[in-house]
Amino acid sequence: MDQTALGDEGKTRCRWAAAEVEFPHYHDTEWGFPVDDDTKLFEKICLEGFQSGLSWRTILVKRENFRAAFAGFDIDKIAAFGDADVERLLKDAGIVRHRGKIVSTINNAKRAQEMRRQYGSLGAFFWKYEPDPVEHGKRGTVSTTPESVQLSKDLKKLGWSFVGPTTVYAFMQAMGMVNDHGADCFVRGQCQVARATFERPRAS
Questions:
Q1: What residues are labeled active site?
Q2: What is the mean pLDDT of residues 166-194?
Q3: Which of 92, 95, 124, 153 could pair with 201 as two cysteines, CB 3.0-4.6 Å apart?
């Protein structure tokens, strides 16, 4: 099936971007563009974890609520959350009220603190798993890759949770580690330029 579709304004986008009214802006300005900021990376991997079993639209429309509930995804602030915060979040109708995912986010913030101490930044750790673009381009449409499987395994060894291979691959797509925009998508070239000029973070 064709990966792209022509939008009302005459722009060809990835077909999934036409599924919901909230998707085009996210698709055009975020998805696939490289990220190295720790707060943004932590937000993205947490939201992908919350999305597990749900639609991405459910998460996207609640994103501002998530940011308010989780202190702007400030890693240190979330790591300090306690039982009272869990109960507070379980009563927050603006987010996904799933105890396991809420507790996981707090746990992962603590693991993120450890990762920063060891590697200097989350970006320095995550970008080690970037696949070769040429080899990745031969794979077509996939939901996991050898790199996402390995990253998932390594995160779990470090104590992270809700980071299965499919969730991790969606995170890799969202953070721009891979450029999975369709060949005819008008954003693909923009992501290619951004990735070409992006300085990969390295462990300090």
A1: 26, 48, 56
A2: 97
A3: 124
